[in-house]
Amino acid sequence: MASLLGRISRAAGAHRLGNAFREIPNSHRGRRVPFGAATVLSGGAAALYFFSPTVAQLDSQNVEAPEKVAIDPEKWLEFKLQETARINHNTNLYRFSVDPTANLGLYVASCVLTRAAIGEESEGRKSFVIRPYTPISDPDSKGYFDLLIKVYPEGKMSQHFAQLKPGDVVEVKGPIEKLRYSPNMKKKIGMVAGGTGITPMLQIIKAIVKNPDDNTQVSLVYGNVSPDDVLLKGELDRLAATYPNFKVFYTVDHPTKTWRGGSGFISKDTLLKALPGPSEDTLILVCGPPGLMNHISGNMAKDRSQGPLSGVLKALDYTEGMVFKF
User: Fold this and answer.
1) Collapsing DSSP states into helix, strand and coil, what is residue 216?
2) Which fold has domain 4-25+69-177?
3) Segment holding 230, helix H or strand E
4) Where would I find the FAD-binding FR-type domain in this sequence (predicted)?
5) CA–CA separation, 115 and 97 (whole Å)
6) Where are the domains of the chain?
7) Which of 74, 275, 290, 320 could in theory staple to 309 by disulfide, Cβ–Cβ 3.0 to 4.6 A?
8) 86: closest CA among 158, 6, 20, 166?
9) 131 is in an annotated binding site
10) How many of the other CB atoms lie within 10 Å of CB of 134?
11) pLDDT of 273 strictly over 50
12) CA dist., res. 323 & res. 313, Å (int)
């Protein structure tokens, strides 16, 4: 059977990936002391109580084994590259192997940190490059996770990924919390994304549409340089055609003769038509390169806090509480 990544490679991005990552619940419950334990202990029979085979058996039945999680927020762990697929002229999909009995350990929306030893050692220590990436795999998938990575000419980490071969390993740590999404947290969610800024949006979109109890209406405005730069268009079109609560609007700076979406940089008029209006029940998410962020909402602050709201969204009367910047 042809692999998923093989189909992606042939379809040039018009593929179906899994749902966005969900929050992993804490399944390790505390030990439950059987009724009457306090009475036995106060009666001076503590040793008999704790060493009773019957009581020990009952107690063990009430303790669930902790859920196995693949990634660790405190420790760098190695994951082996399983296979790759070319999405377009400068973006690839990388699939990494995971213990099939473990959950990856992400929630919506969060990312992982990747680390690679790049460059010369200094004073006997390795020189590392660290970059965050948002997995786009289904949280229920077993045995793998997928990273969508754009390869930049001067990008140390993306160039490192581009040279990886199946069997090579990358160190991963996480999760890193972004927006903690919960079903129906807002009636309407608008999204403005550019380039690989689509990855956290896809996490949230899939979490919403796969949940029949989540009634959130989602509108995505996705801007790119050219039609060839639009990532995962086939998957986004499929989701929009399948789920009535999701709509997507495309625009490119340099359209071709056959392009059927919008043209030009994301404008005030485009956002007026595509996004839900300012409201306490509305949340606008923004993710993309610095130029897009500055134009739409303003960039995040240097300390990675949200920073003040500016740009087109402020001109349209959205407030800081209605906007989240990735």
Assistant:
1) coil
2) Elongation Factor Tu (Ef-tu); domain 3 (2.40.30)
3) none
4) 74-182
5) 16
6) 4-25+69-177, 188-325
7) 320
8) 6
9) yes
10) 26
11) yes
12) 8
133 is in an annotated binding site: yes
Structure tokens at 103: 């959950």
Dihedral through CA 99, CA 238, CA 195, CA 176, nearest 10? -30
Domains 4-25+69-177 and 188-325 share a fold: no
| pLDDT given for residue 64 in this prediction | 63
Check the annotation: does 185 bind a ligand. no
Residue with tokens 């002391």: 33
Q: Which uninterrupted H or E stretch holds 54?
A: helix 53-61
Determine the residue type at 85.
A
Q: Judge whether 147 is annotated as a binding position.
A: no
Higher pLDDT, 325 or 38: 325
Give residue 314's identity as a one-letter amino acid code: K
The least confident of 36-45, 109-118, 191-200, 231-240 is: 36-45
Q: Which pTM value belongs to this model? A: 0.80
The verdict on whether residue 156 carries a ligand-binding annotation is: yes
What is the CATH topology of the domain spanning 188-325? Rossmann fold (3.40.50)
In a 13 Å sphere around the CA of 301, the CA atoms on its Cβ side amount to 6
The first and second tokens of residue 207, run together, are 């979490």
Residue type, 291: G
Tell me: is residue 270 an annotated ligand-binding position. Answer: no
Q: Is 132 labelled as part of a ligand binding site?
A: yes
Stretch 71-84: mean pLDDT: 97
Mean pLDDT of the chain: 84
Structure token digits, residue 153: 């000419």
Tokens for 165, please give them.
């071969």
Residue among 103, 96, 95, 97 at smallest CA distance from 70: 103
- pLDDT at residue number 5: 55
* b (16+ CB within 10 A) / e for 218-252: bbbbbbbeebbbbbbbbbbeebbeeeebbebbbbb
Concatenated DSSP letters for 142-203? -SEEEEEEE--TT-HHHHHHHT--TT-EEEEEEEEE-----TTSSSEEEEEEEGGGHHHHHH
- pLDDT attached to residue 125: 82
> Mean pLDDT, to the nearest integer, of 49-63?
44
CA dihedral 200, 206, 208, 211 (to 10 degrees): -150
